[in-house]
TrEMBL record:
Residue ranges constituting the Xylose isomerase-like TIM barrel domain according to the UniProt record: 38-279
PANTHER family given in the database record: BLR5974 PROTEIN, HYDROXYPYRUVATE ISOMERASE
Name used for this protein in its record: Xylose isomerase-like TIM barrel domain-containing protein
UniProt-listed SUPFAM superfamilies: Xylose isomerase-like
Organism phylogeny: Bacteria, Bacillati, Bacillota, Clostridia, Lachnospirales
Pfam families linked to this entry: AP_endonuc_2 (PF01261)
InterPro entries attached to this UniProt entry: IolE/XylAMocC-like, Xyl_isomerase-like_sf, Xyl_isomerase-like_TIM-brl
Length: 289
């Protein structure tokens, strides 16, 4: 298993700046805690090739965090409107092209917004499965895997695909070859689900994990919802100890055999180097490195 860090949520300037991106990738290599970097980048093809070469030279695998542009740009691969769905699939194919140029081993994707009015989960599952089948075929011939990240449905960002039962319905009768699931601990906690039960239900398709925290008990907190604070956050749903115990329990049960990348995800709020150092500290404790 590769141990990863979600770099651009900590260093957002790297999204548009190849110099910053190069610096934080080099820093990650030198830190010797992580051997995978999860990133999102907007730049030229030449700069994307630079990232690919850095990945090869440093030995770090890279994951393309496609959830950011999908949410930001209203890409909706679960849309009930067939024209909108096809247009969104084409946009995702464009992101796949970027990910391949950067040498990424995985691209994380998400559904579109939850359906307003018509809450037919069966239709959402059918539309999402159809889109994933098309992306699956598009990825063949590359080493890239498409990884679906379930998100909160009843709280921000209000996406259609999140709850375990619906994710199961999408995957259980599928014949995907290059599609799996990114299991984000904070998202399932935001959904009000038991993360261990959800993990066990989706285990056959989980190839990728995000260990992440959230604050859901206090709706007045500025960190309420999908904010990904550190595990040292006092009012967080998880502490370093509880997320350590969850990870180690899943590992001891053999539940992580299909997981080839497990990453820590923290979103910085100023003082980015401090957040990076905290991520390194927490990672060593959780993974017992």
């Amino acid at each position: 298993m590769k141990y990863g860090i979600c770099l651009t949520p900590i260093y957002p300037a790297a999204i548009n700046d190849i110099t910053v991106m190069s610096q934080v990738i080099e820093k990650t290599k030198n830190q010797k805690v992580f051997n995978c970097a999860e990133i999102y980048f907007e730049g030229s093809k030449e700069e994307e090739n630079t990232i690919r070469k850095m990945s090869e030279d440093t030995g770090l695998d890279t994951v393309y965090l496609g959830g950011l542009p999908i949410k930001r740009d209203g890409i909706d691969i679960s849309s009930g409107d067939e024209t909108e769905r096809k247009k969104s699939v084409d946009k995702c194919k464009g992101h796949i092209d970027h990910a391949v140029r950067m040498g990424c081993v995985r691209i994380v994707v998400a559904s579109g917004p939850d359906w307003k009015g018509d809450k037919d989960k069966k239709c959402i599952a059918e539309q999402m499965r159809k889109s994933l089948e098309e992306l699956d075929i598009y990825c063949r011939g590359s080493r890239l895997e498409v990884s679906v990240e379930p998100f909160p449905v009843r709280t921000d960002p209000y996406l259609a695909v999140g709850e375990t039962k619906l994710v199961q319905d999408i995957f259980k009768d599928s014949s995907f070859r290059n599609v799996g699931i990114t299991f984000d601990t904070s998202h399932f906690s935001q959904l009000g689900e038991d993360i261990e039960e959800s993990f066990q239900s989706l285990k056959p398709w989980i190839h990728h994990m995000h260990l992440a925290n959230c604050v859901m008990r206090d709706k007045t907190s500025p960190l309420y919802g999908d904010k990904h604070p550190a595990f040292s956050q006092k009012d967080g749903d998880f502490s370093i100890e509880t997320i350590h115990d969850f990870y180690q329990r899943m590992k001891s049960k053999g539940a992580l055999k299909e997981v080839d990348i497990c990453s820590l995800e923290i979103v910085s709020r100023g003082n980015e180097n401090r957040y990076y150092d905290e991520a390194c500290r927490e990672a060593k404790m959780i993974w017992e490195l």
